[in-house]
Amino acid sequence: MNFELDPELKRIQETARELAADFATRAARHDQELSSPDENYTQLKQAGFYRFRSIDDVERFSANVMFSMKRHARSSNACPNLSSTKR
Questions:
Q1: How many CB atoms lie within 10 A of CB 5?
Q2: Which residues are CB-neighbours of 75 under 8 A, at least 6 positions away?
Q3: What domain range is 33 assigned to?
Q4: Alpha helices in the chain (DSSP H)
Q5: 37-46, long-range: CB within 8 Å, 24+ apart, which pairs?
Q6: What span, in angstroms and rounded, lies between the C-alpha atoms of 85 and 83?
Q7: Is 11 among the domain residues?
Q8: Is 1 part of any domain?
Q9: Rounded Cα distance, 60 and 52, in Å
Q10: What letter does residue 54 receive in the DSSP assignment?
Q11: 30, 41 in Cβ contact below 8 A?
Q12: Could you report the per-residue pLDDT of 26-63, keeping only the tens digit for each?
């Protein structure tokens, strides 16, 4: 089965990876100084991650991810040539 993410989910995943790598460069300094990583919060907001303001927002996003996965699964079930695994 092909479980590739749709373009929007790929963008979110890549952005999260980039932010995490950037945050890691300052984590030790913030730990040592007992300081708040305010710049990280600013970057999260600029990247659009503050759109998740409630558990409902997260659940809606998760539902979209699951819908995307199920859509790909149905496609590969309908056409065995799309599946990378044999049943």
A1: 15
A2: 2, 82
A3: 7-82
A4: 7-33, 38-46, 55-78
A5: 43/19, 44/19
A6: 5
A7: yes
A8: no
A9: 10
A10: S
A11: no
A12: 999 999 999 999 999 999 889 888 776 666 766 676 66
Tokens read off for 68? 């995307």
35, part of any domain: yes
Count of beta carbons in the 10 Å neighbourhood of residue 12: 16
87 in any annotated domain: no
**Which of the 8 DSSP states describes residue 37?**
-
pLDDT at 50: 78
Q: CA-CA distance, 53 to 18, in Å (whole number)?
A: 22
Structurally, how many domains does the chain consist of? 1
Residue of 9 and 74 predicted with greater confidence: 9
| Distance set, CA 82 to CA 2, 64, 66, 75, 87 (Å) | 7, 22, 19, 7, 12
